Amino acid sequence: MWFAPEAEEMANGFISYPHYETAMFLAFLTIIPAMSIFFVNIETSFYEKYMLFYKDIQNHAPYEKIQGNQEEITRNLLDNSRLLIFFQGFISFLAIVLAPRLFDYLNINYLLLGMFRIGVLGAFFHVMAMFMFIILFYFDFRKPALLLHVLFLASNIVFTVMTLKAGFPYYGYGYFFASLLTFGCTYCFTFYSMGTLPYRAFIKNNSALTG
Fold first, then answer.
1. 9: phi then psi, degrees, rounded to nearest 5
2. What does the radius of gyration of the chain's CA atoms come to, in whole angstroms?
3. Where are the alpha helices (DSSP H) in 3-46?
4. Which terminal CB of the chain, N or C, has fewer other CB atoms within 10 Å?
5. pLDDT tens digit string along 20-58?
């Protein structure tokens, strides 16, 4: 966005686009409550089921018990995902609807309103993708997580360049579409991977088999 026609060059040569940066900064603030709830849930209910899954494997529990633990992990993720989507969706909805009043209260230029609103939607999908990334790291899906991060980087660049060419009314849509695409791919891969946890534990991560 520093290549946008509206970008400014500071006295020290630093390039900035204050309108876009301010709108996106405010949009990112809307995800703080959801991040707090997520990390509380991760450190409590999910972590307990995660530890139980691998503890029972180490203790040579029957496969039916391990499969039951796997189903509990998937169920916990689904429940937490619904909670986060509802909670963050509600906050994002309020931020979008109440944006004019917020801008009046903070004395912010209304030119930022469109960028802020689409930025709030982008931040919604971005933070949901971040949560899925953390789950993937818990189960050591490093390569898929890296590829999904590369997808976000590449799509963000491509879509942002496209919106720059489209003009000012479309600023912010590049980030939104990149976040939406990354969240969709990450969500599908995460829940597909939850169905393969026993295979990954016994085969993929078994040094006796992989060398």
1. -105, 125
2. 21
3. 18-29, 32-41
4. C
5. 999 999 999 999 988 888 877 777 788 888 888 888 888
**Residue pair 109/26 in contact by the 8 Å Cβ criterion:** no
Taking only the tens place, the pLDDT of each residue in 125-168 is 999 999 999 888 888 888 999 999 999 999 999 999 999 999 88
Number of helical H runs and strand E runs in the chain: 10, 2
Task: Give residue limits of the domains in the chain.
Answer: 24-199
* Spatial CB neighbours of 45, under 8 Å, sequence gap ≥ 6: 76, 80
CA distance 125 to 178: 9
Cα gap 117→99, rounded to integer Å: 8
